[in-house]
Amino acid sequence: MLKRLEKNKDIIFIATVLLVIYQIIQNYEWFFSFAYRVLGILVPFFWAFGIAFLLNPLMVYIEKKRKFNRIVTLLFIYTFLIGVLTLLVVIVTPQLVKSITDIIKNMPDYYDIVENKISVLLDSKFFENPELNTMVKDSVDTLAKSTFDYFNDSLSDIFSRLIGLTSGFLQFIVGLIVSIYMLYDKEYFKLSSKKIVYRLFGAQKGDFIIHWGNVTNTVFQEFFIGKSLDSFIIGLLCWAGLLFLNAPYPFLLAIIVGIFNMIPYVGPFIGAIPVVFLSFFVKPITALWAAIFILILQQFDGNVLGPKILGNRMGIKPISVMLAIFIGGGLFGILGMLVGVPIFKLLSIIIDQFVGSKGDLENCE
């Protein structure tokens, strides 16, 4: 009996999966409601995994270079992390809230400024034709109103999320604590995961899964850690430049530029839009200088800073990056744009493996 089950285990596995899928389709409302509740319970563990994922390379570096034991290393890392988080809560968050509140309050004045400039333009000799004047005025008014409504709704949503951060603060704290245990016992979790994989899939398939798990981990760590450091530096430089140009809300706008800089190629241009948009109301020439400054900053990032930090490890052509961003963004929004590049890189490594190229794989071992 056991030998027969062992012989037909693949068929039994496929039949079980098909049965589960059928039951999910038949009871999809209950399933998605149950899955949503389970995911809500697991949020602290998602936080813990994300924190441990980002801090693990730093822990490995300190243990190798400084020869500290695990407890001392974790004490150093988490003391630094808690200090940074405290700085963000005490200094950064109030400034962000104040900037967003001021923008929302001044939005009607900004709209009046745009209307006045449009009226002056339409009264000029370039629009003497009444029908053309009316058509252009209606089109521009509609566009301006839609743009202001979008910015107003976006800022109101950001403001609401900042206020609502307290509701998820406890989950983050729990995740922070759990991440300490994850890092402390990471060898145990790694060994347990390997045992489960080998038990379920056997030696050959287990080796395959473990290998590609390591490759995936390497690709995502290289991208997110390198790009986070790169974006942090760009955000600081942007803040200094906007202060020098006397642009409005330099701290808020620098954070926006730094965050969107995480998205290669497209992100810098998205981040530049609010900078130019808000600078225009202070002084149009300020908006022009701000646009030129951000263009120079992004060129510096793309040609000097980015390659210095990330090197050529991502190894993806610009057209492939654009394709990954557009597909990821179209399917999953901002999150898809963010993870599209490392996923595309992973797919390129898989393709290289199956066509016989091993260069990338050797770097990921």
From TrEMBL:
Its main location: membrane. It is a multi-pass membrane protein. GO terms for cellular component: plasma membrane. Signal peptide: none annotated. InterPro entries: AI-2E-like (IPR002549). Pfam families: AI-2E_transport. The chain crosses the membrane at residues 12-28, 34-59, 71-92, 158-184, 232-263, 269-297, 318-344. It is found in: Cell membrane. Keywords: Cell membrane, Membrane, Transmembrane, Transmembrane helix, Transport. One of its GO terms (biological process) is transmembrane transport. Belongs to the autoinducer-2 exporter (AI-2E) (TC 2.A.86) family. This is Permease. It comes from Filifactor alocis (strain ATCC 35896 / CCUG 47790 / D40 B5). The lineage of its organism: Bacteria, Bacillati, Bacillota, Clostridia, Peptostreptococcales.
